[in-house]
Amino acid sequence: MAKPKVATASLAGCFGCHMSVLDIDDRILKLVELVEFNKSPINDIKKFTDRCAVGLIEGGCCNEENVRVLQDFRKNCDVLISVGECAIMGGIPAMRNTIPLKECLDEAYLNGPTVYNPAKKIPADKEIPLLLNRVYACHEVVKMDYHLPGCPPPADTIWEALVALLTGKPLKLSYELIKYD
Amino acid sequence: MSATFTFTIDGKEIKGQPGQTIMEAAEAAGVYIPRLCYSKDLRPHGSCRVCTCMVNGRPQAACTQPAAEGMVVENNTDELQAIRRDLVEMLFVEGNHFCPFCEKSGNCELQAMAYRLGITAPKFPYLWPDRSVDASHPEVFIDRNRCILCGRCVNASKDADGKNVFQFVGRGEHKRVAVNAEANLADTDLKGTDRAVAVCPVGAILVKHKGYATPVGRRSYDQKPIGSEIESKRK
Predict the structure, then answer these.
(1) Which CATH number does A5-95+131-177 carry?
(2) Which residues of A touch B106 (CB under 8 A)?
(3) Mean pLDDT of the region A118-142
(4) Which of A132, B6, B58, B100 is 20 to 30 A from residue A66's alpha carbon, by CA?
(5) Residue B1: per-residue pLDDT
């Protein structure tokens, strides 16, 4: 039987959750036996080449590209998991959610105390993904099947969740493995 | 007067003293009823409703309801735990709770309650309210983003400190903790050592210059769920 495939993405995140995946230490050898990685920054595969059993999403949606990537993952993954606080509630990027977008951009590019911008232009190149009005949690954009909280989630949390899902066992996290920081 | 009486919580016989609430009698018997706004030594406020139990088939707040002979109390049922989960999730979405960088994380009763109830993500829409921070005081700050309106600071300031520093203003989603001063917290007679500061269950009222003092792993709720200290007294 072919190995189940796993895909991962970092949206509006800091890659800390991906570091936590690597933090499973030598169990990564077992993980490679258990699964094959498809689209992921870990192997630098840019496009889905096959249907995946599990998709791990780090970070929330702060721009239109994040939304498109997340929708692509939903289409190509059987089970989609929010990994970490940013995916679950927006995290640090969501600190801008109580401030209107225009005020954020004005502060960053026009009014901030260290800004040097003689042209008084706010970047609007079409190569730059358009910012959303606020940062959205993944489950506000597509259906997410599971949430693994933490900043980042402990390596054991990610390991337990992956092994349970890939071996068809119920996902039951013990008290120490649910943490929000 | 020793007119003790008995009632049951989840089928277990509990001894009550006259004048005790269900919460107090349960705690004395080592039965933990989840709660957020209730704090021992303060007048019960009954505002968070997390301690809601079915009392003779009707929902009642255990922190305000007096215990009585023959009462049948349901506490740890699937239905009540689901309601408590909903209440705690609503508190998370109606404030701005950034656990990853909050100084109170690991010692926060709201977070600990969510851990105990096994919440991984709230099911309700995030509201992202615009709330204010008052950092004018040299020893203490208020971050209203994290406030859950439990009322502990209001009661403690009045009853324990005798100062009346805090009060509620506004109604519904506009309700907030205000300070009893012309302008800011700095204009009150609040001290960092006041009971009103210590009783805050979340990171809304904190003493300055003391953040992140305890390493991760050794904080109050890192290893054991909130309430386990009460449950360990159970005979």
Answers:
(1) 3.40.50.700
(2) 181
(3) 96
(4) B100
(5) 54
